[in-house]
Automatic annotation (TrEMBL):
Organism: Mucilaginibacter paludis DSM 18603
Pfam families given in the database record: DUF4138
Domain of life: Bacteria
Classification via InterPro entries: Conjug_transposon_TraN
Secretion signal span: 1-19
Keywords: Signal
Protein name: Conjugative transposon TraN protein
Length: 283
């Protein structure tokens, strides 16, 4: 038994020596992290440039939540757990393209409001990440969508008209694994249009009344603008992850109105329109 203990100690010492040689512990030390002071009576908000995917708080004495997608709020618990666990902690925030860590330290009651309660997550405090399935962040999608919206429509790839409303597919673009659809609606009536929603479905081009209609709804990964109503003109950019559908089907954009028996406008987009989409030129 004594020989086994000695052998185990030798193996552990050898592993520790090997770990030092290959620098396994050469990560970021807690004392090197940006310091955030957290008082008993206040909450601190971390503002992220993109939606937060994951949060880890190393101490149970601190509670955290996401009131909105890109804001993390932390505060000390008021129960007995705070007295059991240490007051300081490491807070890890992971976005779509970055990871940031902060050393949160207990602060006494602030005098004159000296503690900063909102923290902008700066690029200098982050490390880049590459998650599978996420090729563009939300800020990047917004930037490219705004670039499309600022262009004058050169052509209408598809159009339809009903109830005095004309729907147009102004342009289709691709970038990486994403498809950008630039849609506009023109209201020639004197009644404003209150938008209940815009849905996208893949349906058969020709529907036989004797057959069952199979419809597949797809949802945008990103929608540039949130517009509740429009009087004359409405234009928006919808971004989808790359999708395909056969030539005997059509992608239908359906805009419905917030009223009983409201006006419904349907625009059919063929797969040819998607295949011939222009490529967005990167800066």
């Amino acid at each position: 038994m004594k020989k086994l203990i000695i052998l185990t100690a030798i193996i552990i010492a050898a592993l520790q020596s090997h770990a030092q040689k290959i620098n396994l512990a050469d990560g970021v030390r807690k004392n090197d992290l940006p310091v955030i002071y957290l008082p008993d009576s206040l909450s601190v908000h971390f503002i992220s440039p993109e939606p937060i995917q994951y949060v880890d708080i190393s101490s149970n004495s601190i509670a955290g939540d996401l009131p909105v997608k890109n804001v993390l709020r932390i505060k000390y618990r008021t129960d007995s757990a705070k007295r059991v666990f240490p007051h300081d902690a490491v807070v890890t925030i992971v976005g779509e393209k970055f990871m940031a860590q902060y050393h949160v330290i207990y602060s006494a009651e602030p005098q004159g409001g000296a503690v900063q309660t909102d923290i902008e997550i700066n690029p200098a405090d982050t490390r880049p990440l590459d998650f599978p399935g996420i090729s563009l962040s939300q800020p990047e999608l917004r930037k490219y969508a705004f670039g499309i919206l600022n262009k004058k429509p050169e052509k209408h790839l598809a159009h339809s008209k009903a109830y005095g409303i004309k729907a147009n597919l102004n342009h289709a673009y691709t970038l990486g694994d994403y498809i950008f659809l630039d849609l506009s609606f023109e209201n020639s009536t004197n009644l404003s249009y209150s938008i209940e929603g815009i849905r996208f479905k893949i349906n058969d081009k020709k529907v036989n009344k004797a057959t069952t209609v199979q419809s597949l709804e797809i949802r945008p990964d990103f929608t540039l603008l949130t517009v509740p109503a429009f009087k004359r003109h409405y234009r928006n950019v919808f971004v989808f992850k790359k999708f395909t559908f056969p030539g005997n089907k059509v992608l239908q954009a359906e805009m419905s109105e917030q009223q009983l028996s409201g006006r419904v406008i349907t625009l059919g987009i063929t797969y040819k329109d998607v295949l011939e989409a222009d490529t967005i030129t990167l800066p």
